Amino acid sequence: SFDAELASLPDGAGAYSPVNGGQILLARSASTCASASNPITSTSASVSALDVNDDIKRPEQEEENNILGCVALRALPPSSSSGKKRKTCEMKRLYITPPARGMGLGTALARAIIKIAKEEYGYEVMKLDTLSSMTAARGLYGSLGFVGTEPYNETPIKETMYFEKVL
Asked: What residues does 54 pair with on adjacent strands?
């Protein structure tokens, strides 16, 4: 559920605040979007960005429980590449509700968060982790230019795989 995903974000929601270099994006059902052809909505047009310091509407508060997916962005410490420190971020919690899977929402959310990371925050490298069992997610990340990398965090889950993309 959306509440479970939001509650499970690491480091509390503050790490995902725009003030801290983060963002949360939502995909909403077309019935409540400005354009039925674009399920990713925004306060202005294309992406729904939540400031986690404001009140967040939960799906049960929204008309028709219309949230179909989410993705989050947070800052990481700079990473080194060829002796140069690069401004680094992490994509977290790309999640699409089961009824909305196969509609291209995961790709749309991932592309939107990559664009925001690069253009609005000036990040140079994006990292993410996923499980080896998540074959569709790994295929998506590969199609977006992510490549395998060394672990950048600690996790007790042995099947965790790490990826990064130069933005």
From this structure: none
